[in-house]
C-alpha cells in the first residue's frame, strides 16, 4: 500500500490543526474513544508514536518503564512534543520505502504496510476523536477515507479481539465512506459530547 504514503502528510496536517486548537480547558472533555478523555487520548498518541516510528524505520522499539496508562506524557509541553512526533511520522511514512517489506511493532512481526495504515488511521480516526471532543470538525480527503475504510475492514476482527476497536457500529444507508470507516472501528459517526 505504498501509494498510501502520499496520504500521510495531508492527514497529518489536518490532525495537527486540531491539536493546535486544543486547549488546557479541553483536556478533560470526553472523546468518542470509550474510556478516553482528551488528556488520555493525547497520552495514547504520545506513548505509541515512538513505537510506530521505530516500526517504520525498522529499528528496535523504544525502552519503556511503564504502560500507557501510567506514562503521564501530557505535560505543559505536550503540544510541542506531539507536533514533533507527528513531523517524524510524516518523514518516515511519507516515504514509500517505509511501507515495504516486513517490520515489527514491539514483538509482533507484520507487513510494514499495515503499520503505515495504522499511522494513517491514528491521524484520521484520532483526529476525528479530538475534533468531536472539542467541538470542531476534521476534513478527511476522499482518498484517505477510502484507505482507512479498507484498513478498518481488513483489520476489524483482529482489532476487535485485541480491544483496539469497539463492536462495529451500523451506519445509515447512504453513509459516506468516512462514516462507514468510523462505524467499522466501533465509532458512532453521530457521536456528540
The largest sheet, given as strand count, sense and whether it forms a barrel, is: 2 strands, antiparallel
CATH fold descriptor? Four Helix Bundle (Hemerythrin (Met), subunit A)
CATH superfamily (homologous) name: dinb family like domain
- The name of the CATH architecture is Up-down Bundle
Order of helices and strands: HHHHEEHHH
Beta percentage is: under 5%
Write down the Rg.
16 Å
Question: How many domains, in number, for the residues?
Answer: 1
User: How far apart are the termini?
Assistant: 35 Å
Number of helices: 7
The best one-word shape is globular
Mean pLDDT: 93
The percent of residues in helical segments reads 40-55%
Q: Using DSSP, what is the number of strands?
A: 2
CATH class division: Mainly Alpha
Strand order of the largest sheet: 1-2
Class from helix and strand fractions: mainly alpha
pLDDT under 50 segments (min length 5)?
A: none
Domain Mycothiol-dependent maleylpyruvate isomerase metal-binding: 9-131
InterPro entries: CHP03086 (IPR017520), DinB/YfiT-like (IPR034660), Maleyloyr_isom (IPR017517), MDMPI_metal-binding (IPR024344)
GO molecular function, one term: metal ion binding
Protein name: Mycothiol-dependent maleylpyruvate isomerase metal-binding domain-containing protein
Short description:
This protein has one domain (2-184): Four Helix Bundle (Hemerythrin (Met), subunit A) (Up-down Bundle), CATH 1.20.120.450. 55% of the residues lie in helices and 4% in strands.
Amino acid at each position: 500500500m505504498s501509494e498510501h504514503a502520499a496520504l500521510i502528510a495531508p492527514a497529518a496536517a489536518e490532525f495537527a490543526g486540531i491539536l493546535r486548537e486544543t486547549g488546557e480547558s479541553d483536556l478533560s472533555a470526553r472523546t468518542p474513544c470509550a474510556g478516553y478523555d482528551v488528556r488520555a487520548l493525547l497520552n495514547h498518541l504520545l506513548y505509541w508514536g515512538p513505537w510506530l516510528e521505530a516500526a517504520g524505520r525498522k529499528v528496535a522499539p523504544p525502552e519503556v518503564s511503564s504502560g500507557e496508562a501510567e506514562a503521564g506524557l501530557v505535560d505543559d509541553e505536550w503540544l510541542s512534543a506531539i507536533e514533533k512526533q507527528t513531523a517524524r511520522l510524516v518523514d518516515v511514512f511519507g516515504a514509500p520505502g517505509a511501507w515495504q517489506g516486513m517490520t515489527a511493532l514491539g514483538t509482533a512481526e507484520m507487513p510494514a504496510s499495515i503499520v503505515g495504515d495504522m499511522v494513517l488511521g491514528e491521524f484520521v480516526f484520532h483526529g476525528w476523536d479530538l475534533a468531536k471532543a472539542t467541538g470542531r470538525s476534521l476534513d478527511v480527503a476522499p482518498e484517505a477515507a477510502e484507505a482507512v475504510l479498507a484498513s478498518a475492514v481488513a483489520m476489524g476482527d483482529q482489532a476487535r479481539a485485541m480491544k483496539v476497536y469497539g463492536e462495529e457500529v451500523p451506519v445509515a444507508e447512504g453513509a459516506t465512506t468516512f462514516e462507514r470507516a468510523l462505524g467499522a472501528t466501533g465509532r458512532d459517526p453521530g457521536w456528540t459530547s
